[in-house]
Amino acid sequence: MPSDTAPIPPYRLTLPTGRACGLVVASPHSGSDYPPQMLALSRLDRLTLRSSEDAFVEHLLQAAPTLGAPLIAARLPRAYVDLNRGSDELDPALIEGLRGQRLNPRVAAGLGVIPRVVAAGRAIYAGKISRAEAQARIDTVWRPYHARLATLMAETYAAQGVAILLDVHSMPHEVMASQTGRVPQIVLGDRFGGSAAPAVVAAIEAAFAAEGLRAARNTPFAGAYIAQAYGRPRFGRHVVQVEIDRALYMDESRIEPSADFDAFAALMARVLARIAPLGGADALQLAAE
Questions:
Q1: Phi and psi of 231, rounded to 5°?
Q2: Distance in angstroms (rounded) separating the CA atoms of residues 131 and 249
Q3: What span, in angstroms and rounded, lies between the C-alpha atoms of 95 and 116?
Q4: I want to staple 170 with a disulfide (CB 3.0 to 4.6 A). Which of 41, 54, 178, 209 is the partner?
């Protein structure tokens, strides 16, 4: 396959006029700028490729900068580079020349840093891509995004004495519909306490509950690379992965906003307004807990 580097800037960043709180908000999977080379090489149509996107999540988070929190969102899609994977999560079934690669379950399923499949296990390409091409995607998309995210976390911590990253995603409704009992609409992942202090997670859960949303923790999504890499609760750096049921705001089959989209976006603005004070005056007390 020919080289498929991405000249498009890899993220959109909206900064607040002043760093008024210790919150950072991110949407690493809502990118939808598909490089033409990728579309030409893929065996899938654009709508099928988009099935793995957290479509429109960035738009649900637009209130963050008005509350004093930076908002960073991917431009390029998860099917091109998955920003919630480590740069070494390489798939030998997709990338030529890999030998002796130890596979974790995500990579084995085709969901490494360069994905082999989209939703329902549908293969993106007919064959393999070169190691050079995979590395180019990592160098031009993954590394700049994570360099900027790391800087945002460091700057926020320096200014506020705490940094709380909301890493926001969406989940297919059918995944949750298959659950038994009280089916959650929101899943908060803190890697079972490894990426955020209990008081932080409890306060975020309460913010969603105040809007009438049912929340659960860590099942079936406990947090992946970003939570693992950036969450250091003992040192005042907290990460909570937020998964939102797509049925709350979009038509999943057509990948279009639903009639309820604006109302749900307003709801999310209220949730963020409740969460933002966690990184304000109460930040040091929260970190101590």
A1: -80, 115
A2: 38
A3: 9
A4: 54
The answer to whether residues 55 and 32 touch, using CB atoms and an 8 Å cutoff, is yes
Residue 108 CB neighbours (<10 A): 11
Q: Which of 17-26, 70-79, 197-206, 209-218 has the lowest mean pLDDT?
A: 17-26
User: In the CATH scheme, what is the code of domain 11-84+144-288?
Assistant: 3.40.630.40
* Alpha-carbon gap, residue 64 to 201, rounded angstroms: 18
Cβ atoms of 194 and 232 within 8 Å: the answer is no
Task: Quote the tokens at residue 203.
Answer: 């306060």
Taking the domains of the chain in order of start, what are their residue ranges?
11-84+144-288
Is the confidence at residue 176, as pLDDT, over 80? no
The beta-strand segments (E) located in the chain are 11-14, 23-27, 71-74, 117-118, 122-123, 163-171, 186-189, 215-217, 237-245, 250-251, 256-257
d(CA 272, CA 278): 10
| Residues near 171 by beta carbon (within 8 Å), at least 6 away in sequence | 187, 221, 243, 244, 245, 246
